[in-house]
Amino acid sequence: MDRVSSPEGGCFIRDDGPAAGRVAQWAVKAFRPGRPVRDALLLEFFRESVLVTGVCLGTLFLVTPDVSPARAAGHLVICAGLALYGSIRVARAARRPFPAAVRGFRTVTRPTVVVHHDPAVEPLDAVVIALLCERELPLLEKAFGVRLRYWRTRRPRVYVFPSAESVEALYRQPFTGFAEAGIGAVILSGADCNPELVRHELAHLLAHKAYGAWPVKVVTEGLAVWAERTYGGSAVHDVAAAIAGRSRKPPAELLPPHWGDASARRLWELYAAAGSFTGYLIGRFGWPAYRRFYRGMMGTERAFRRRFRRRFGLTFEAARDDWLTKLGNGELTGRPGRDSFDPE
Ligand SMILES: [Zn+2]
Known about the structure:
There is one protein chain. The protein has 14 helices and 9 strands. By secondary structure, it is an alpha+beta fold. The chain has 3 domains: 2-35 and 101-211, Zincin-like; 38-95, no CATH class; 217-343, no CATH class. The chain is globular and about 75 Å long. Zinc ion binds at residues 1-3, 200, 204, 221, 224.
């Protein structure tokens, strides 16, 4: 649901080496400043209304080919009215969590994603973020085996705020990103944006779209961190091994199934442990088995434990002990592919 502030943080153009350089060059070519968010939404109303009206009228003529012109005109008015009303409702719902916060935002529209950004975010950075989402989304869609479109036509939205502080002001939690699966949107801090953050939040949206309800944290955050491919630029197993070796915490404290409020540093460690544990499970049982596990209802810790034992044939504690032993012995290596979650 969220992405904790990394102690490293940083802008991806600065931190991500040659790959980011290529994205930046690509962005310069595609650069067009965004239009105000209100104009973009109006254009969307229009596009979706025309589409829905066309589908309704097409169906009408298929069902009754000899319909009279007066009746067809009546249907046209009703369909157009309903389509416009529906699209306005949808667009309003998409802005409901933070209508005031995004009022002055500008919009960059790409074929697979729509980015709304605060005017304080550099327009070129917003385009880079849009292109980054556009690059990572099909790869993640392939890994999940699901397409991220809402009501068939609506592209996922990305709201870019200038900094982690502005995201924190909105959610009152120390995060640089959030996934709002209910409205098909992710919220990012522009200053902290990097490919890991983008993949993390898009993975949340895809997991929710593919599997429904939110399970316990170790499952949701574990998969989203594993989907990042690296954690703060390093392999997630290496980060988790360093944390486990340094902290010497008992397993129950190092990786509980669920966690609530905690300091940013503690959350950062929990995310790394959950990501590594998820990678271990996918490596041991395979991605298809993990998907089947993820698909069930396990919003409570009890339901999670029961499902874990039924699907993997051992208790969560036994799997966690085995993971820790392998982590300590340096047996866990590799990271997921760009379009697959099995370890490479
Ligand atoms: Zn998350």
